[in-house]
Amino acid sequence: MKKQFLLSVTLLSCAVMARAQKPDTAQLLVHYKFSHIRDTTNREQPYTENMVLIVGKSAGAYKSYDKQLQDALFRKQVQEQMANSADGHINIQRKASGSGTEYYQFPNGKKLARKEPLLFNNYLITDVLPPIEWKISGDTATFGGLHCQKATAHFKGRDYTAWFSPDLPLHIGPWKLNGLPGVIVEAYDTKKEVDFKFDGIEKAVISAKKDDQPTGQAPNNQGRMAVMIGMDEEASDPNIIQLPTKAIKTTEKEFANLQEAMRKDPNAFAQSMAAAQAASQGRPAPKIDIRIGPQPVINNPIELPEKK
To answer: Between β-strands 158-165 and 146-155, what pairing exists: parallel, antiparallel or unpaired?
Structure first.
């Protein structure tokens, strides 16, 4: 059984990587305070996270803003220590903050992609952008100076109210919400169990080129060292919207099977993944001891089954 599992993991790890999508440049960043009552027995403590929708000319990316800030701080600390260390030794306590799940919407091609991290790898799941039958009303409101209009729809087991801005004509929104004639700047279900609350909007800032190195920092080694100690090797200009090219393409079913295997026996799963990677690189497999703490109670997922 273990051999079969190891073989399946090896095959999956050798799967074709995501094809490069033509990059899009961010125009605006829409910020949200995301709130989700995941445990209905503890409604006073919903899961919360600061999120951002990166809006381009023809595509959008929805990510954890908390994680973006934490990753940026970590990169800065690595660069500073590498620049000031005579022997290359660095010592940084990295804090886990924010979800690693990311959503990419391509409305012109009606395509949705989701990046999911799991242990050593990132996985990419692509699908059709789900159609939503919105009913647009004449109600209007202003969010951050944006003129917005109200719409309602039933989607993934919930009844949603959304506010979109016709002044931002791209048909995208946070998470999987899409299909309105303008960017969705706020949305929530009728029970307020899922809430994408508007938290500001700003113009995207053009970053310095990748080749530009701050004065006094080592240009050649810090990037590789950052990868070695756990940074996302695909970390790049946050204002460029493109699919992660090094993520492993998979399906919803295959990824669910991987998650279940990880949940049932984390050590066996981690050892199999490490062995698969080591075999592909022609080196012996390391011994790994994974310890996972208590997992959150989720009896109210964001996507609910439809009532029959």
So the answer is: antiparallel
Q: Which residue has the higher pLDDT, 113 or 15?
A: 113
Which value, in Å, is the radius of gyration of the alpha carbons in the chain? 21
Tokens of 216: 């006094």
CA distances from 34 to 48, 78, 272 (A): 6, 30, 35
Residue spans per domain, the chain: 22-250
**Structure token pair of residue 121:** 């790898």
Tell which wins on pLDDT, 247 or 291. 247
> What is the rounded CA–CA span in Å between residue 244 and residue 234?
7
**Is the confidence at residue 285, as pLDDT, over 50?**
yes
Which position has the token pair 């690693």? 100
- Beta strand pairing call for 102-106 and 60-64: antiparallel
Those residues whose C-beta lies under 8 Å from the C-beta of residue 299, and which sit 6 or more positions away, are: 38, 39, 40, 41
* C-alpha span between 29 and 11 (Å, rounded): 38
How many CB atoms lie under 10 A from the CB of residue 292?
A: 10
Q: How many residues does the chain have?
A: 308
- Specify the 3-state DSSP secondary structure of 12: helix
Phi, psi values for residue 46, rounded to 5°: -70, 160
**Confidence band, pLDDT 50/70/90 cuts, at residue 207:** low
- 38-69: per-residue pLDDT in tens? 999 999 999 999 999 999 999 999 999 988 88
Higher pLDDT, 284 or 135: 135
Q: Which of these, 19, 17, 63, lies nearest to 236 by C-alpha position?
A: 63
